[in-house]
């Protein structure tokens, strides 16, 4: 029976970042029904099950309290941080290159150590895809609970669906105060996501809390069982690629903030290689913190 952990992704401090349940199920013994029950019991945005893989170094499967999903960026970072922290992944010249099997495909990751101390984990995402979208701004403002003039999408940064592994609707908001203050209509958000075939709505503003950050963000994805995500790796990776493509950021390392609205401030690195005309690669990464370790009672899943 595997050990259970909670790991906070994209923070070096406990009780910040995105809390993620990681279940080490090396022999892949838990049925889908048991995994769904565990995810509901853990009641975090993602519960990730790590097992052996015949195609890669590890296999990770992701469950929300509502359903299984094919991929999660923050849970992948959390899982690999944990595996390195407990010695399942070892350093070779201060780094390790690990392949992860998921339902969305196989992803390359990098684990870095500094002075023999685990330092950062990175995940290389799919090459970004963008889909133009037209939507009535008044209707969108009503769903988000704000005035239309607080949505700043225009010809230079229009509404777009961006995808580096999970499609997100990106919406530019006027300020961090407005971004934090808005209270969306979650049922309407879910209907919108279904209609537009996206997994979430990702709001962003250039008005940041920290000097040097590219953007402050919030994400709503009730369609996946989480009204609001503390911090999203896939969404911020897609946003970073979009900003470079539109000329609002330079290729290199971008810093995105998220989680202030939930009192769990987090930062994520997005590393973009390429140019405005061609984004060659998108990589997300950062730190994590192992918070809890526990073991379920013997025989629990046989009752």
Notes on the protein architecture:
- By secondary structure, the chain is an alpha+beta fold.
- The chain has two domains: 4-124 and 288-294, Diaminopimelate Epimerase, Chain A, domain 1; 129-285, Diaminopimelate Epimerase, Chain A, domain 1, CATH 3.10.310.
- The protein is 20% helix and 38% strand.
- It is built from six helices and 18 strands.
- The protein has an 18-stranded mixed β-sheet that branches.
- The protein is globular and about 55 Å long.
- The model has no long low-confidence stretch (mean pLDDT 95).
Features of this protein?
alpha+beta; globular; 303 residues; Diaminopimelate Epimerase, Chain A, domain 1; 2 domains; 6 helices
Largest sheet: 18 strands, mixed
Q: Kindly state the number of beta strands.
A: 18
Roughly what fraction of the amino acids lie in strands?
Answer: 35-45%
- Give the topology string: H per helix, E per strand: EEHEEEHEEEEHEEHHEEEHEEEE
CATH architecture of the largest domain, by name, is Roll
What is the general shape?
globular
- What's the end-to-end separation, in Å? 14 Å
> What value does the average pLDDT take?
95
Q: Helical amount among residues, as a percent range? A: 10-25%
> What CATH first level of the largest domain would be assigned?
Alpha Beta
CATH-defined superfamily of the largest domain: Diaminopimelate Epimerase, Chain A, domain 1
Number of domains: 2
Which topology of the largest domain does CATH recognise?
Diaminopimelate Epimerase, Chain A, domain 1
Uncertain stretches:
none
Helix/strand-derived class?
Answer: alpha+beta
Oligomeric organization of the protein chains:
single chain
- Gyration radius over CA: 19 Å
User: Total helix count?
Assistant: 6
């Amino acid at each position: 029976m595997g050990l259970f952990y909670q790991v906070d992704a994209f923070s070096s401090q406990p009780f910040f970042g995105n809390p993620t349940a990681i279940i080490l199920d090396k022999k892949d013994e838990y049925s889908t029904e048991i995994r769904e029950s565990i995810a509901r019991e853990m009641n975090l945005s993602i519960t990730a099950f790590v097992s052996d893989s015949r195609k890669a170094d590890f296999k990770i499967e992701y469950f929300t309290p509502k359903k299984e999903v094919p991929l999660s960026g923050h849970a992948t970072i959390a899982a690999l941080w944990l595996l390195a922290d407990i010695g399942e992944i070892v350093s070779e010249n201060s780094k390790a290159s690990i392949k992860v099997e998921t339902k969305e495909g196989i992803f390359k990751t990098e684990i870095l150590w500094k002075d023999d101390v685990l330092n950062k984990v990175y995940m290389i995402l799919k090459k970004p895809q963008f889909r133009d979208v037209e939507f009535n701004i008044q209707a969108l403002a009503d769903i988000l609970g704000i005035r239309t003039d607080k949505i700043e999408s225009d010809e230079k940064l229009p509404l777009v669906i961006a995808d580096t592994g999970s499609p997100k609707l990106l919406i530019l908001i006027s300020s961090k105060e407005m971004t934090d203050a808005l209270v969306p209509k979650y049922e309407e958000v879910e209907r919108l996501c279904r209609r537009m075939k996206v997994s979430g709505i990702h709001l962003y503003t250039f008005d940041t809390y920290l000097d040097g950050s590219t953007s402050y963000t919030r994400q709503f994805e009730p369609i996946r069982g989480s009204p609001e995500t503390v911090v999203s790796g896939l969404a911020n990776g897609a946003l970073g690629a979009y900003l470079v493509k539109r000329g609002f950021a330079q290729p290199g390392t971008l810093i995105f903030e998220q989680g202030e609205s939930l009192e769990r401030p987090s930062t994520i690195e997005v590393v973009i290689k390429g140019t405005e005309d061609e984004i060659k690669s998108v990589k997300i990464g950062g730190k994590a913190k192992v918070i809890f370790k526990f073991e379920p009672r013997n025989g629990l899943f046989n009752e």
